[in-house]
Amino acid sequence: MAAFVLRRLAQAVLVMLAVGLIAFSLFTFVGDPVLFMLGQDATPEDRERVTRLLGLDQPFWVQYANFVARALQGDFGLSLRQVRPVSTLFLERLPATLELSLVAALLALAVGIPMGVYTALRRNTWLAQLFLAVSLIGVSLPTFLIGILLILVFAVLLGWLPSFGRGDTVALGWWSTGLLTASGLKSLILPAITLGLFQMTLIMRLVRSEMLEVLRTDYIRFARARGLSDRSVHFRHALKNTLVPVITIAGLQLGAIIAFAIITETVFQWPGMGLLFIQAVTVADIPVMAAYLCLIALFFVVINLVVDLLYYAVDPRLRFDRAAAAN
Amino acid sequence: MTGPRRVSRASSKSGRRHGTHGAPVRRTGGSHLIARARRAWDSDLAWSFRQSPVAMLAALLTLLCVGGALFAPWLAPTNPFDSAALNLSDGFTPPAWTEKGQAKYLLGTDDQGRDLLSTILYGARISLAVGVASVLLSMAMGVGLGLVAGYAGGRLDAFIMRVADIQLSFPAILIALLIDGVARIVLPRETHDSIAVYVLIVAIGLSKWVDFARTVRGSTLVERQKEYVQAARVIGRSQASIMFRHVLPNVMGPVLVIATIHLALAIITEATLSFLGVGVPPHQALAGHADPVGNDFMLSGEWWITVFPGAALIVLVLSVNLLGDWLRDALNPRLR
User: What is the reported pLDDT for A322?
Assistant: First the structure.
């Protein structure tokens, strides 16, 4: 177990260093920070002084080491456009994105798993066929169009829900939450559906195909032969094994949700990190882009790690394989 | 990162191959054309196609979209990119069947007075071109790298697959966004609009090679153990020749399925990037008017500017997806 965790941790650190290198290359090779800070008509002496001040005269690897050291302390420099520390900008917007992503993920799981189980168990009913057809349409709809259509129906035509923004928020320390006010909750509904819909269809299809596969196996046939009730066979025996790959995919998808939030946040003008990033891309604000890249990579690496460990905990075969190999 | 984890159904099934389709077709000359056509008609794939009304409908819709896109210059009533022909006073004309509509603008016009039907046809042209080109790029990259990794093995294999694993842990849209963003900064501002399409193709293509590489590597590992590969080695064929002339045709089945599904994904990605303002200029994109500005159209009652291009995009992606779905089932021997 310890060796397994250590190897995964080492890999995670390697990935982070590689992503850091890419982010750092953005800083170094894209655009000229000195030119950007001083403008066109700076004297050569000024340029040289700033270059030395920023450490840009040092060898590449030394600069990279400095970058990593500062990044570890959460220091990604100043945003070129807003002239505020990048870390502060992200801290302000982190709660909005995380709340949206988690609610969307819960929604996807809470709706996707029952739908998947239903379509697998009652394969030939019209409702199951309908779910499948809807899921294919859900996969084919670009996220931004879903968002816009939802806005058209629920915000413009019916006028039930707000079409943009986060509503009122309450500050809990540095964390601002929209989950405690009525307007915050109302604002969350449409973006969460938009963001969760794609993952929901994905989870539904996954649960369905896994369930169908599990239902064909011998131990299910044996369970039936023992005279267990359908309920017990389906939910106590089959569902348990179905959920193993679902944990993996759902975990990995959580990272994808955080990244896909870029689109949803743009549609709904949701004040999260994705919106910050897309604004940074359009105005070439490199420190913000680099920091976002590192942050998303961190999320992914942590999620990957947790999923691997969960998998190890859930699937005993892995442990036995390793134990057998050790002997 | 190569954990004990199943990432997708497609890749886990890719190891099993379908028997007949990879077999090399004998070159028999022109007189046997009819025989060959008959064989194609009698093949499993064609039979399964004739059995599936959904697949036929999807193929028909796809053909319609492709035809409309290919012949846009002849089909479209106006050229939406010709700014001299635009008449601003025609802006915001609703569809022809509504009260204020004009007969010459069947689906209405956008804010600049562009005919929406023409915009859709020209937009579909760009969407399909970017989609096909980027899928070809990622296919060439992925198949090449996967083949080399699977055939050569060893450190090269480990390196390529590790890079693939790392890239796979990021969503493709983020990678495409980054490549596009960097290209925007590096390239001079004036050339943005003219090369936007190529930047998009490269960005989307580079972000999606991994699926191809993993699948092809898996099948190559199986294929290279087979006797025909040993036979080719014994008669002294070069490594490259064995890889590309002998192994490649036998691993292409699953690649076809992935390519179809990725075409739909690439079209979605193209539309999304354009929506986010980093793709092709908004007035050229298929659903370009569905950007935050499009939201304003929506709020102010000019719904057609957003709805029709969006619907066209959905029809295009849905029919390609349906085709891909059918192809996957048709090529999967376990479902027969």
Answer: 53
| Residues in chain A within 8 Å Cβ distance of B303 | 152
Q: Which CATH superfamily is domain B107-335 in?
A: MetI-like (1.10.3720.10)
Q: Residue A296: its chain B contacts at CB < 8 A?
A: 170, 174
Query: Confidence band (pLDDT; 50, 70, 90) for B67?
Result: confident
The predicted complex's ipTM stands at 0.74
Q: Distance from first CA to last CA of chain B, Å, rounded?
A: 34
> Cα distance from A105 to chain B (closest Cα, Å)?
16
Tokens encoding B116: 């929406």
Let me know if residue A80 belongs to a domain. Answer: no
Nearest of B61, B90, B89 to residue B77 by alpha carbon: B90
Closest residue on chain B to A281 (Cα):
B181
Facing A15 at nearest CB: one of B166, B184, B277: B166
Instruction: Kindly list the distances between the CA atom of residue A28 and the CA atoms of A34, A56, B73, in Å, as whole numbers in the listed order.
Output: 11, 9, 45
Query: How far is Cα A246 from Cα B138, in angstroms, rounded to an integer?
Result: 28
Q: How many CB pairs under 8 A join A and B?
A: 131
How many structural domains does chain A have? 2
- Would you call B271 and A289 a contact, using CB atoms and an 8 Å cutoff? no
Chain Cα centroid distance, residue A268? 18
A211 within domain boundaries: yes
**Chain B residues inside the 8 Å CB shell of A289:** 178, 181
How does pLDDT run across A170-202, given as a tens digit for each residue?
A: 777 777 777 777 777 888 888 898 888 888 888
